[in-house]
Amino acid sequence: xxxxxxxxxxxxxxxxxxxxxxxxxIVNGEAHPKIKVTANGLVPFKEDxxxxxxxxxxxxxxxxxxxxxxxxxxxxxxxxxxxxxxxxYKIDYSKVGTKLFVRIHQESYL
Length: 110
Fold this sequence. Notes:
The protein is mainly β and 110 residues long. The protein has one helix spanning 53-58; strands at residues 7-10, 14-17, 23-27, 35-38, 41-44, 61-65, 78-82, 88-92, 102-106. Strands 1-2-7-8-9 form a five-stranded mixed sheet, with no helix packed on it. Strands 5-4-3-6 form a four-stranded mixed sheet.
């Protein structure tokens, strides 16, 4: 039995958002800021993380732990997110706190 997810993994560091009804919260280790992927792009996630999957679904969220074995298995320095707004975003965790932390990588990947 496979669980339906709101995202697809691609390659070694790309996440593709595929479900408009659910937002994705990207968690890349405890030291890095959390990012929410919505249908309109990326925003910082400042709320508390849902305690479990049921609570996440009630809040229309899916939490993606980048370092979990199910996803990439390690904390990433560079991550690409293909959002439903037709853009691919580049998240460079070595540049947290600067305007280069989250940038548009490709204007249209479709």
